[in-house]
Automatic annotation (TrEMBL):
Protein name as it appears in the record: AN1-type domain-containing protein
Keywords from the named record: Metal-binding, Zinc, Zinc-finger
A GO MF term: zinc ion binding
Gene3D superfamilies registered for this protein in UniProt: AN1-like Zinc finger
One Pfam family cited in the UniProt record for this chain: zf-AN1
Span of domain AN1-type: 13-50
SUPFAM superfamilies from the UniProt entry: AN1-like Zinc finger (SSF118310)
InterPro entries: AN1-like_Znf, Znf_AN1
């Protein structure tokens, strides 16, 4: 049986907790983390700004496609 994967969070004192199997991998940097560091905000993900920008662009496009245009009233 292979050794357990360990959290890849690096700081002054590295985290020695076991990495979570299903939700422990960051979708942005592909590193494995424990439950305390699995969120991009908690492990200072390098790709967090790119992720935020992509989400902003998707939300902007969605809102612009749903924008309603007021019909002009014809004056008689």
């Amino acid at each position: 049986m292979p050794a357990k994967k360990r959290c890849q969070f690096q700081s002054e004192t590295p985290c020695n907790s076991a990495a979570l199997r299903i939700v422990g991998q960051c979708p942005h940097c592909r590193a494995d983390f424990c439950g305390a560091h699995r969120l991009p905000e908690h492990h200072n993900c390098n790709n967090l700004e790119d992720c935020r920008q992509q989400a902003f662009e998707r939300n902007k496009a969605k809102l612009e496609s749903e924008r309603t245009v007021a019909s002009k009233m014809a004056t008689a």
